[in-house]
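With this grant's support, we have settled on a layout for protein records. One resulting record is reproduced below.
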Amino acid sequence: MKIKKLLAGVLTAAAVLSLAACGKKDADTKAGTVKIGILQLIDQSALNDARKGFTEELKAQGYKGDKIKIDYVNAQGDQANLKSMSEQLKQDKNDLNLAIATPAAQALQKGDPDTPMLFTAITDPKSAGLTSSTKAPDKNATGVTDMVDVKGQIDFTHKLFPKAKKIGLLYNAAEQNSVFQIKLAKQEIKKLGLTAVVKTAATTNDVQQSAEALAGQADAIYIPTDNIAAAAMPTIGKVSEAKKVPVVNADATMIKTGGVATRGINYEDLGRQTAKMAVKILKGKKVKDLPIESPAKTELVSNAKRMKLFNLTQSDLEAASK
């Protein structure tokens, strides 16, 4: 009986040691795993492309399989979701967080100020309160902006459609990024001796009515990197085709679903650029030592169907982009 008890004790001890070893192995595995939280404002093509570029570049840099854990949440444009999801990411104690779009970055900075944060698809991080300096980030947040040459794009629109005297502007007035870009667009439209016609859309449900009203008053439409407009670009594209009013976008991604042409940024490239900054932080760089970056490149893109609709050639496109 004593031998049986002794044997049982030995077996129990062995089992405990075995479990402890397994636990240590699991802990070691977890200790070697990078944890990254991603908070995205809304489900739309440009932001999705930015996220895709970010994760793909991390894979290319060796962060894949059990070497990385991505904690992705999407607020679907809801402010309450942004708040609760930011708090959730804080509890997850990630090594790094990524915010995609300005409202997401503002919510995440407030909800989790201690975790290093990168942002992307943000036009003006200073006016958004994310930093006091783009050269020396001072609020534990840095990243890559999607600021485009608004003046150049209005000039491009004017050259592409020289007979257009009234330029329509469609945006969400609650989106800081868009307000900033529209201000610049209005200034350039005025300098060119043209008239700006402005309509806003607070939600994607408002876009069709605003786009139709704008198409009835403007000769051509310019749309900034606005998240509401981007999410509703198929609707804007239908209005553009039905009313025969061309649309030029700041975002190259939008051309696929509603625009004619642009010299704009590729959001997948933007995400990849942001991921390279993430790798630097994961390898020990401090956020404050990584200046905020501008898009590394722009590209000339067009939609063949709409180019034909508005009687434009590749030569017209190249001439307008000079």
